[in-house]
Amino acid sequence: MDGPSDLTPLLQPPGTPHRDLRVNFVAGAVEPGKAAALERLLWRACRGFLIASFRETERQLEDPVTGEPAMWMTFLISYWGEQIGRKVHKITDCFHCHVFPFPEEEAARRVALEQLQQQSLELREVLRETELFLSQVLARVQRLLPTWQVQVRKVKAVYLALNQCSVSATHKCLIAEGWCATRDLPRLQEALRNSSMEEGVSPVVHCIPSRDMPPTLIRTSRFTAGFQGIVDAYGVGRYQEVNPAPYTIITFPFLFAVMFGDVGHGLLMFLFALAMVLAENRPAVKAAQNEIWRTFFGGRYLLLLMGLFSVYTGFVYNECFSRAMTIFPSGWSVAAMANQSGWSDEFLAQNPLLMLVPNTTGVFLGPYPFGIDPIWSLAVNHLSFLNSFKMKMSVILGVTHMTFGVFLGVFNHVHFGQCHRLLLETLPELVFLLGLFGYLVFLVVFKWLCVSSAAAARAPSILIHFINMFLFSSSPANPPLFSGQEVVQTVLVVLALAVVPILLLGTPLFLYWRHRRHSPRPSSPLQEDKAELLDAADRDEEKAEGPREPEELVLSEVLMHQAIHTIEFCLGCISNTASYLRLWALSLAHAQLSEVLWAMVMRVGLRLDLGLGVAAVALVPVFAGFAVLTVAILLVMEGLSAFLHALRLHWVEFQNKFYSGSGYKLSPFTFALEDE
Prior knowledge:
The chain contains 21 helices and eight strands. Helices cover about 60% and strands about 5% of the residues. Belongs to the V-ATPase 116 kDa subunit family.
């Protein structure tokens, strides 16, 4: 090809006719918005006697004027002749282009290129070494960062506490006022002395009187923390008020177990809680962030006792996954009944149900050693028998639980110096509660002990007696349980009604009488002067100790408060006693759900009429389904239901008899949260 091509070099090699022709270059950068206009102007002004190449930078570069990063359009202009060169330089100056120095000699350009390549290599090496050094520093910082974070949080907590201190009048020391447990006061003084030995300044600790109610500090352990949390969820107790948590450790799992009684279910819950207790010190267990897991883990000791007590009540109910257990020989003899009744083959064929009469000699041998006799699981009146037993048991447990709560209120009254409430509140409450519902418990126990099986058909109804007690009447068809029963019932109802006015008006009238007694009015000039002197002394004392709240008794408020308490207690005794019947209802519901699950899953699988090998394989999914449903329904859902009902019984029926929960917790300065 004779003509020039794209690959023909622009500069002729030495020895050619045009070897003296020189090509000049201008290189620089312009703003992207001006690049198109610059290119058009160069082409028109120079009449096309140049070659211009524009390219946008790959990343932002620093603006030499403003110092801010910005995108640029770089260009390279090739031209011939000095006149065109002057035009190119003038145009680039008009567009405020940044022109880069470009050597005209080829040797100089090569030297500059080599220098730039060398500098690029050196810069890449510096960057690589810098990145290596920074990665080492960051790796070390990563190891030290948790410790630094803890230290920063501790310093922040210290400064937050110091900011709450007040500055003395001389501005030379800080004064901090706070609460400290009496038992920890020597440790506080020792810690202050040890921390100030190097500074040469000894802190001074004074115990100052305060009219504010102190906060409540209850020390807990891993075992008691869960039970104390149940009580604190109702309300933090007042300072030195009776704490229900120690009694809740026993009563809460027991009432839960009454509703959840089953040996198998209780054992599964116990083993699950025991696994959490044994693994409580493992870091992976503590660091788990799942909210449901942390809830279970926080109450692991509560679950442990709930499962243990459920095993106990399961033995009492004689139920293990709804199946009865024959631990001891039954107290009923079917052989004796068959021998004395003369049951023939025809009689047995015509009567699918047989009756065991305890009055027949040798049929009833005595009570079962522990729990319910397993023969009751075969009886058709099994549910009726458990209904009667569990309902009466619930009433007995409820009245006992509420009475115990009223007795705990005695310690509060004695400790706070309110002994008048023993006679005007506690005694009337006990008379009302025990005179009505305690008498009901007495009737249940008396009927159990004194009515034999021979007289069971003619046994009087406790429910009718209890209704007649409030109606002051009797039923000829319902004979009394003991002689003089009507007189006793009348006296108890009259006493219960008579103590209501005492409970309503006793405390307000006593407080009003005591207030009038301790605030007499002066009746002579001498007494007036003496009163003025005493008032002046009291004002001086108030200046020294701080403002004192006026002790003023508003009789209407006291009467209103006492009326609410009286109505709540009297009506609450009735509603709370009925509320304890939830023990009976949930216990039967749990037993029936367990029975239905066994009948609809396991019994169907066990009755499969298949070969031994096929039946064994078929039982695997059946047992898996039974296990999943047992855990999901009977353990989780029924367990949660029984837990909530036990929680309600403690908060509403038990704690409101003596526990106000109107205090506030002590929030001491601690690094415990920062350490976590």
